[in-house]
UniProtKB/TrEMBL annotation:
CDD domains linked: UDG-F6_HDG
Superkingdom of origin: Bacteria
Protein's name according to its UniProt entry: DNA glycosylase
Organism: Ruminococcus albus SY3
Domain Uracil-DNA glycosylase-like intervals: 12-159
Pfam family, one: UDG
SUPFAM superfamilies reported for this sequence: Uracil-DNA glycosylase-like (SSF52141)
TM spans (from-to): none
Record SMART domains: UDG (SM00986), UreE_C (SM00987)
InterPro entries, per database record: Hypoxan-DNA_Glyclase, Uracil-DNA_glycosylase-like, Uracil-DNA_glycosylase-like_sf
Signal peptide (UniProt feature, chain positions): none
NCBIfam families assigned: hypoxanDNAglyco
Length: 177
């Protein structure tokens, strides 16, 4: 099964004062850590789903992804600041130190919080919610491990859950999506 490794999250959160939704994963996978940015596994559907959600092309480079998130009013970070983990196995996570999302919520007081998958959701509820007044909405995971959800179904569910927050009070409300 492998040995535990202590991981300290090395990616900065991506957000600015215009961010309307915060999407929290659990912790970057081994592939994402090798790539150097969020959702770096080539089979993870995060970038396809979010691009479809906002009606933009799928970003490719890290710089394009950062610009895409900021231009789309999407903030991204993870629930875990550091932990012990075997490979990318969410089931093996232990000794969690949670991220301090107040860095984002202070600048963006009206931001809506979402978790990408069950592990992020349960970790959020256990480690962040007790010190926060912000419950998080659980999104179905974009991970390739979530084979029960195809990309089309994921996109529709993400649109249903996120659109009311992301597109409120905007000139282009994407009502035809």
């Amino acid at each position: 099964m492998g040995e535990y490794t202590h991981i300290i999250h090395s990616f900065e959160p991506v957000f600015n004062k215009n961010s309307r939704v915060l999407i929290l994963g659990s912790l970057p996978s081994v592939k994402s850590r090798e790539y150097g940015f969020y959702y770096g596994h080539p089979r993870n559907r995060f970038w396809k789903v979010t691009a479809a959600l906002v009606g933009k092309p799928v970003p490719v480079t890290i710089e394009e992804k950062k610009a895409f998130l900021l231009d789309s009013h999407i903030a991204v970070w993870d629930v875990i600041a550091e932990c012990d983990i075997i490979g990318s196995s969410d089931a093996s996570i232990k000794n969690v130190r949670a991220a301090d999302i107040s860095v984002i919520t202070y600048l963006c007081p009206d931001i809506a919080v979402f978790t990408n998958g069950g592990t992020a959701s349960s970790l959020y509820d256990r480690h962040i919610l007790p010190n926060s007044d912000r419950p998080a909405v659980r999104l179905p995971s974009t991970s390739p491990a979530n084979a029960a959800w195809n990309t089309e179904r994921l996109t529709e569910e993400w649109k249903r859950l996120i659109s009311p927050y992301l597109f409120q009070n905007t000139e282009n409300n994407f009502t035809n999506m």
